[in-house]
Write a structure and sequence with these properties.
heterodimer, A: 133 residues, alpha+beta, four-stranded mixed beta sheet, two-stranded antiparallel ribbon, 4 helices, globular, B: 345 residues, mainly beta, disordered C terminus
Amino acid sequence: MAELLIKAVDAIHVDPVKDQRGSYKRGDVVVVMPDGHVWGKEERLPKFFILKVPGLSVAIANRVIEIEKIDTGLFDPDGNRIARTVRRRKFTFDLDTLSQVLKDQINKNGEITFSIVKAGTLLLQKTTREQAF
Amino acid sequence: MPIVITKSIKATAGDYTTIVAWEAGEQGDLVVADQVRVGELYNETYAGIVTIDGSTTDATRYMEISVAAGNRHNGTSTGGGAVIDPTTTGHVFTVSDDFFHATWLRITDWIGDSSEAFRVNSTGLVVDKCIVHDTVPTGNPATDNQDGVYVGVDGITVNVRNSIFYNLQRAAVMIQIDTQTTAVLNIFNCTAYKCVSSNNTLTFGQFSARAGTINVRNCAAFDKVNSNMSDFGKHAAASWGTSSNNISSDTSATTTGLNSLNSKVATTQFVNVGAGIEDFHLKTGADAIDVGVDLSGTFPDDIDGVNRSGTWDMGADEFVAAGGPTGYPSAYYDNHLVGQPVGVM
């Protein structure tokens, strides 16, 4: 079982490029931890909430903390391809499609528990809307 | 004076449990808030790698990762402190916010080809009192390019001081890219030992620049591993700027500037250079004692937080004779005056 720390609110930077590249947005999964992780005092509302997914391995859940990068087609002096960060996170937890009942549950408890299947329908790639798992 | 907001990062009973979560929770406009935001580590091991980005900062209002008093390393390889030992591949810190500060960290065993302890994409970075050592080789010497501090873009200034780098798979601190002609490295009172270069067409020394300006002062570099690199080295296109007062085991220190010392022996400088028990404090009689230049206009102390006094020494440590002060003193760090003028405020 994995627990996911998810941003509850947008961070905003005035520079739109830096904002997209560097600011965590509402729904971004910041950290994945195994079941039973004792979260810190700031790792809760209003900054974050916790998504608990029984049966989901940390290894699979870690897909949703992937940084979105693009290949620039350039190479560094060591011969490695240079990738540029586009967004902090490639995937988002789609809060907007949650029912108000579920949103209220998050707002009340600071956490919510979903099955792997349900979580999979909500953890989506930002640009393609493909499921993370 | 900006307000300092300190949050603890620890496994239990802290504000945050990971550096990544701290950065995500604290990023913002620090200039408008008039704040320095400090993530304070404890005497634990931290496994994550982190990107520092998304905040608005300036020279006096910035993000900082440091270590809580009483939890800091003692300047040796075995001396505790907060250890960042990543379990995933990549740069330990990818720094894209200006004026980020990293102090009192021990960083080791990071993973991956072309992965650095600090990949720097923004100006004003301050690395102070850090021990950076023993990367994990990839198994392919041709691609073991793991530097301590690596300048990632042109036009920035990077400040590294009172820090120790050893057993790295490439340079301690470097400007690698030809086009970084306006990048500036200020490397003051640092020590490098046995950093390897797997790619000698690109790396010139343990403290190295292929372009830009590298100001190296009061630094000690010993026992570079590859024969065709130097302890201190640069390409013809780079400048030594205001470098001076350095010491090396080869003959490269005097190429950096005045008052430098060549061909010295590591074992006569440092308390212990044995593998796994390294202690780069200066020992009695070391050539590096009392031959440095006074940089107290920039910072006052050494890797232990002990105020430097008299004629400064070369390297990260200021030699203290038996019976002298030990350990960090110091309201200087705990009040976050780093980078600000020293004196009455």
